[in-house]
Amino acid sequence: MTGAEPAPPPGPGRHTAALDLDGVRDKAGFLDRCARDLGFPAWFGRNWDALADCLGDLSWWGRPAEGFVLRVHGWEAFRTAAPEAAATAAEVFAEATGRWAERGTPLTVRYE
Question: Where is the Barstar (barnase inhibitor) domain (predicted)?
Answer without folding.
Answer: 15-111
